[in-house]
## 1
Amino acid sequence: MFYQLQHFEGVHTHGLTPCRCELLRESALLVNADNDTLKRLMDREPAMAALMSIQGFRSLKQDLETIINKSEAVKKARREANDEKLSANQQKQLTEAEKEYKSLRKKVEEKLIKFATRVPVFMYPTDYRERCLKDVITYLEPGLFRKVTGLTIKDFELVVSLGVFNSALMNDAVYKFKRYEDASLG
């Protein structure tokens, strides 16, 4: 069974199976976008370079710096202001800074989720559905994985090792996909 890449890329926008709907419902759990995870990611230049090579992640470094710096500045200001009352202007500035970094964090998280949901769905265009995802990616279809995700296996494993993606949930999504496929085939 061979699908053209154009067909596969459309899978994430339409033609949802129950398994795919389940994955999308749980998609926020597929990624970790807390400050500690983002700092680990920023500290690993190869991981940053790999993600920034993907369309939509070009400004990732700047976005992560803004998220981390503003969130830490807001926390520090709130901690220091704990003893004294903030003026209306100071409160407004803190609230605006908080909205900005939370909005930016949400955008980064959505981009990571969009990427992460491609990985379990990677099983659609492959002939090796009965195998586990790691085997298909690593040994059987590494070229297709690179075309679909934009990352090499080494880069993907590095990003996963930093805790950006929840590999246990991805494996669970693959298991659910295989179970659904098996049931639909007979």
## 2
Amino acid sequence: MTRTRNLTSLIVIVIALALSIPSMLAFRDAVGVPGGEHSLDDSVREALTDVFPDAARFDAWEALEGGFVAVDQDDEPTGYAVVSEGKGYGGPMRLLVGVGSRGAVMGARLLEHQETDGFIDDILAPEYREQFTGKRADDPIELERDIDGVSGATGSARGFAEAVRAGVTAIEEAR
């Protein structure tokens, strides 16, 4: 009887472990592992690499949900990033906003949008995005104050600036 009970218990434990492994792996991939990278989709990974080209890796940033730390070859943080959102003319706009270790914007990259292609092209241009570089949390980062708009795409430009400001603010509050 005891032997049957022990064998039954062992079988139940093995089955429970086998069923829980996919959930544990999904959790690990969703939140990242300590000292490891988030499970990144290609657009976020590409944006991070574009904003922080010298980073050796991108770790989960525990201080900010959904945040990343750019880490160099010497294992030193070089900057922080977060995916933030603004409201464009056509709907929500998701951006990756990167801030250097000294608090200045390193770059912002559009990840998703619902804007009209012809209008969003000007916002995707490096000349437009460069005006955000160097901005800090104490800057307005607001259309027609310290950010130039885009003729015919005011709503899109406003949404982009709103998302950059939200990202910079979130990063500064978490630092």
## 3
Amino acid sequence: MWQLALTVCFLTLFDQGTKFFAQSLIPDEGFFLFPFFALQFFLNKTFWGFSFSQAYYIAASIAFLAAWSAVYYRVLRSSEQRPYVFLGTSLLLSGIVSNMIDRIRFGGVVDWMNFNGVGIFNFADVFIITGTVLLAWYFFKIDQKKGILKSN
């Protein structure tokens, strides 16, 4: 359990550090590093385009963390080694925690990586997406091995 906590803390600190540097070093207008990628500071006060109160974000994040704690206890603590579950859970939890810290501190999430046509985001968003994909892939593979899912 301590390995998960340590990994989540490290990844959260990494994301918070990049957000600090983004706030400190990126000019208001931003700048392009490549034709398709720009560094641009943006305080995102919405959740996927929806506007909610800060209390909603905190409550939703706590509920999500509690749900993933249950998943961790049930799945990760079993006798088998499951590196995809460990990594996926670590990435997912650190992304949630880091974005929750932003919402509490700033009233929104600090986004700063702008891929033209994709959107503006941060490492916590990348962690959440990557962790979700890893966990979905792992559980899909496990279900296939148990014969729950039938592939054509």
